[in-house]
Amino acid sequence: MALVGPNGSGKTTLLRIMAGLAAPDSGAVVRERDTGIGYVPQTGVVPAGRTLREEAETAFAAGRALADESRGIEERLSTLGDGSRETAGLLVRHVEIAERLEASGYHRRDEQVERVLAGLGFARDDGCRDCGDFSAGWQMRIALARTILESPDILLLDEPTNYLDLEARTWLEEFLHGYPGGVLAVSHDRYFLDITVTRVAEIWMSRVSVFAGTYTHYEEVRSRELAAIMERYRLQQEEIARVEAFIRRFRYNASKARLVQSRVNWLERLPRIEVPPVMKRVRFSFPAAPQSGRLVLAADSLAKSYAGRPVFAEVGFELGRGERLVVVGANGAGKSTLLRILAGREPPDAGAVVRGTGVALAWYSQEQADAWASDRTVIEEVEAVAPTVLVPELRNLLGAFLFRGDDILKPVSVLSGGEKSRLSMLLLLLRPANLLVLDEPTNHLDIASKDVLLGALREFPGTVVFVSHDRAFIEGLATAVLELRGGRARWFPGGYEYYLRKTGAEA
């Protein structure tokens, strides 16, 4: 099941309450006895002091305790006679433990650990590394791996695809699709939700409603329901206006006093239809930029190494005007490094990048957004770069990127990393450019905001090079794929589905 709702609606709070980490103000969580719940928060930080392998094996603590008890029973049985009452009881308990260990897969734990760690992208020699040596993104994977290995009856997952590359996401999707227990997931990844959930729980105006089907089906049903509500609201408002006009017309007419009073009473008793707050569909055109030449970018035999370790070599391709190129590959393949080189933010060790005539490049990255410091407020930053024609739409645009109410008056210096990322992306879209180089542009955006960004980029008249781990976003935008694998690059002249078909056939 997916748990969805606007930012700030309480999705994470509800997960924490269900996990027993927070208490509700009223009501209670009712669960069956011995129901195991595993919760993976957005920031699954794992303390240092244990290796990755040791941390993963903590998932089998309950099984280890049963195995220890089983050995203790065996030792006790060796000292007792066959016919004693204690022997009979111990034998029953020994069989019970053996059945529980077999059902839990405890004796296959080494195989399970290897499978889960590999599926989430860990290398074989990572098992000996201290958990504290991993980055925050990899620590999130460690927490996810440990919880999966615990095999709880219910998995509560808060943004589980954050920090996962496409290969790890695909593995997680397949794992959850066949998971025998229950799953409740908060995610802003449309493709992930469509693959993994069969129901959607929506938090809307402080209420929870449940819809059967995939996330896409939920959106369709919700859209029809909202349209029906708006139509009933329109008809009710017309009727209210008609009745109020009658009251105003005959209020001081004694012969109509009874009719007027009956209509006043009707208005007072009328249950008013509530109109839910619906985020406006935001559309905007990019600021005009000079058209580039037909050849926008050429990479010639690019190579890069860090600390003597080759990242990639002999990377070469040409990018034409209007193309949308996605760079894909496993974590560590060099995707972000290649984008920085293409954008001129980092030099290659060998080779060269040649830009075509009239190219105006705009660059976005998470690191760039995090390092941003400014004394101006959010709205001041946007007003400073927005074309005059878009000024009336600035508040709607800010709302589409999750800046609402007093958020627009915050100084940039106090924004969180996610807020800076969203604002940086919006400012990039408002500046005139004909080549966009985007490293993870959908990070920190909800599904509605991703739709706004995707719609804008699809109408963008220039060229786009991007890295993303959001499959729905990639499929909606990419017209070509550059795969980095094993230090080499391969060009696929088609969308992401074409790339998957080609590489799948080769496998």
Describe the structure.
This protein is of the alpha/beta class and 507 residues long. The protein has three domains: 2-213, P-loop containing nucleotide triphosphate hydrolases (Rossmann fold), CATH 3.40.50; 217-269; 295-503, Rossmann fold. The protein is built from 18 helices and 15 strands. It has a six-stranded mixed sheet with strand order 11-12-13-9-14-15, sandwiched between helices. α5 (109-119) packs antiparallel against α6. It starts with a strand and ends with a helix.
E-strand count: 15
Whole-number mean pLDDT: 88
- Major sheet characteristics: 6 strands, mixed
- What percentage of residues falls in helices of 4 or more residues? 40-55%
Structural class of the helix and strand makeup?
alpha/beta
With strands numbered from the N-terminus, the spatial order across the biggest sheet is: 11-12-13-9-14-15
Apparent shape = flat
Number of domains: 3
- Reported by name, the CATH topology of the largest domain is Rossmann fold
Q: Are there runs of 5+ residues with pLDDT below 50, and where? A: none
The percent range for strand residues is 15-25%
What's the alpha carbon Rg, rounded to whole Å? 29 Å
In CATH, the homologous superfamily of the largest domain goes by the name: P-loop containing nucleotide triphosphate hydrolases
Task: State the end-to-end CA separation.
Answer: 32 Å
What CATH first level of the largest domain would be assigned? Alpha Beta
What is the CATH-assigned architecture of the largest domain?
3-Layer(aba) Sandwich
